[in-house]
Amino acid sequence: MIKINHMMHTGLIVKDLARSRKFYEDLLGFKPNPNRPDFGFPGVWYDIGANQVHLMVVPNPYENIQRPEHGGRDTHIAFSVDDVAPVRAALDAAGVPYTMSRSGRAALFCRDPDGNAFEFSAVK
């Protein structure tokens, strides 16, 4: 059996780093971690509590795959929030489409400009 200590980061493939940074930094409020080494391809790291999100500009093997409309039925990252209402308001103001949780939970799902799916959940 493999003993896992904790999750370190999630790597996401993006096509246009400047466009993605607007989404992650301006909409989600993520702050770049300046300690990302040069990996030979563009990218950025964001600290999220004890974890990180890594954006990587690399060839995307999933680019032409048809994704489900509802992000909850796709590979996704889930973030804990206090209340989904401010998330809805921010997404509405930014023109980012989303779907509410189909289970009735206080959660919603959206996608970044490259189709990566996110859950924002107020479920404690």
Share in helix:
10-25%
Give me the secondary-structure category: alpha/beta
Per CATH, the class of the largest domain reads: Alpha Beta
Low-pLDDT parts are: none
CATH H-level homologous superfamily name of the largest domain: 2,3-Dihydroxybiphenyl 1,2-Dioxygenase, domain 1
Mean pLDDT: 94
Main sheet strand line-up: 1-4-3-2
CATH architecture of the largest domain: Roll
Basic shape: globular
Report the total helices.
2
Reported by name, the CATH topology of the largest domain is 2,3-Dihydroxybiphenyl 1,2-Dioxygenase, domain 1
Radius of gyration: 15 Å
Straight-line N-to-C gap: 30 Å
Beta strand %: 25-35%
Q: State the domain count.
A: 2
SSE string, helices as H and strands as E: EHEEEEHEEE
Q: What is the tally of beta strands?
A: 8
Describe the sheet with the most strands: 4 strands, mixed
Structure notes:
The two termini are 30 Å apart. The protein folds into two domains: 9-56, 2,3-Dihydroxybiphenyl 1,2-Dioxygenase, domain 1, CATH 3.10.180.10; 71-121, 2,3-Dihydroxybiphenyl 1,2-Dioxygenase, domain 1. 15% of the residues are buried. The strands form two sheets. It has a four-stranded mixed beta sheet with strand order 1-4-3-2, with helices on one face. It has a four-stranded mixed beta sheet with strand order 5-8-7-6, covered by helices on one side. By secondary structure, it is α/β, with parallel strands linked by helices. It is globular, with a radius of gyration of 15 Å. It has helices spanning 17-27, 84-94, and strands at residues 9-13, 32-33, 43-48, 51-56, 76-80, 98-100, 107-111, 117-121. A hairpin with a 5-residue loop joins strand 7 and strand 8.
